[in-house]
């Protein structure tokens, strides 16, 4: 009867303390939410940090109060104390991970999914080692077992691990980063959306996704349009008849380029004779610069339509179809 009474008393203390702590937690989170002035304000950020770890603190505090009332056997008492320590360490790891992830998200460049995963593994790995140390578990045998097991896994997953280390190489050397516009072959180009632990995802202009193994990127040749600068030079062909007024042709091209959005004004466009005189017509290359490779096709289309309209209005003769 005494055990049952003590057990009910401990259960009541645990339940009441849990309820009280939950009410206090709700009041604190609500106060922070009301005090927040925006998603990046300090009260809102603090609320995000405390939302999940505070639940573990409630459980840890309630268990501690229950232990102070109910005298358990030493092994059960030790087991619950270890659980309390685990709750506290895991909650601190959650807060540290949230802080690190927030710091990563505020960097001036986009971070890949692999970098976020490696950060989580590092933070929670350190937390696990600390927990084992607190529990009195020797870390040396664990690390030895992990080393032997890791060797066996490495032999079995050579292809997967090669892609993993290739992804780490991409993150460290940064030949490409998330948001870069790249070309991986003659017909495949797009924007890097994520660098994962095995593959890299590239979104094309047609809104489809190309999934490329990481080692294919590190072993191949990639054209990165955003290195060293995102601005790129491009051109459109200009074809006119032999007897066309070349000065007027050049003036029309320059005037149109100054009015089309997307053509950078700080780098003057050029009308180059390439290849120049041909048996049937004169061919030039109108070269200019745009802000990014992505979207340059739309700028070219606007230029072509505007230049053609000006040529027709000024009666610029275009090449005629050769007859036999």
What characteristics describe this protein?
324 residues; five-stranded antiparallel β-sheet; Alpha-Beta Plaits; alpha+beta; 3 domains
Inertia-based shape: elongated
Helix content: 55-70%
Please give the domain count: 3
How much beta, percentage-wise? 5-15%
Order of helices and strands: HHHHHHHEEEEHEEHEEH
What does the main sheet amount to? 5 strands, antiparallel
Please give the number of β-strands. Answer: 8
Q: Distance N terminus to C terminus?
A: 116 Å
Q: In terms of structural class, how would the helical and strand content be classed?
A: alpha+beta
Number of contiguous helices: 10
- Flag low-confidence runs: none
Oligomer: single chain
What is the mean pLDDT? 80
Order of strands across the widest beta sheet? 4-3-2-1-5
The radius of gyration is 33 Å
In brief, what are we looking at here?
The chain is of the alpha+beta class and 324 residues long. It has ten helices and eight strands. Helix 1 (2-35) packs antiparallel against helix 2, helix 1 packs antiparallel against helix 3 (53-69) and helix 3 (53-69) runs antiparallel to helix 4 (74-105).
